[in-house]
Specification:
Length: 189
């Protein structure tokens, strides 16, 4: 008889201990939940407080058009093409009707050419980018700086599809890559 009474007491103690453990776990879970809710509310308030200090897209556009070189393509062509050609030469639709790759190959074959075969892709990309400047101002082109890679690519493709555009799909890739390389952005995959 004593054994059954001891066994019942042990079961009550275990049941009581399990209830206490379950209660403690519930209390701890509620406390953690209250703590997390408090942290989220505090974070939300801090983000709202920062909103006045964050830059708008318009602020970024204004910043983009006022920093950096005035013409990234001319900077890229410095010392390769600018020894023989002036900015005015490029402004006169130089290379607009001819395939850029063929133009660069023809120029590199000239005896006075000052660029190596390693520089050909950069020169081709800069000349292709200059096609944009025939319709858009440098300030307008710099606005691409605030766009994400997909947005930038969408703008370039929209320009490819414009009536009268002289930009091919290959040109579009060169423009994207040149712009990304020049400003130090990663190319989209």
């Amino acid at each position: 008889m004593e054994t059954m009474e001891q066994s019942g007491t042990t079961e009550r103690r275990l049941g009581s201990g399990m209830r206490m453990l379950a209660t403690a776990a519930i209390v701890l879970a509620v406390m953690l939940q209250v703590f997390l809710i408090h942290m989220v509310i505090r974070l939300h308030q801090e983000v709202l407080a920062q909103r006045d200090e964050l830059a708008t897209k318009e602020d970024l556009v204004n910043f983009a058009v006022n920093v950096g070189p005035t013409d990234p393509a001319m900077v890229a062509l410095e010392g390769t093409c600018t020894d023989c050609h002036t900015e005015e030469t490029f402004a006169q639709a130089h290379g607009m009707t001819e395939n850029v790759h063929e133009l660069v190959q023809r120029m590199s074959d000239l005896s006075g050419a000052h660029f190596s075969t390693d520089e050909v892709p950069r020169v081709e990309a800069a000349l292709t980018f200059m096609k944009c400047a025939h319709c858009h101002t440098q300030d307008r082109l710099k606005e691409l700086a605030i766009l994400g890679p997909k947005e930038r690519w969408d703008v370039i493709i929209r320009m490819v599809n414009e009536p009268g555009s002289t930009i091919s799909q290959e040109d579009a890739r060169r423009i994207r890559d040149f712009y990304g390389d020049f400003w130090g952005w990663h190319r989209p995959e």
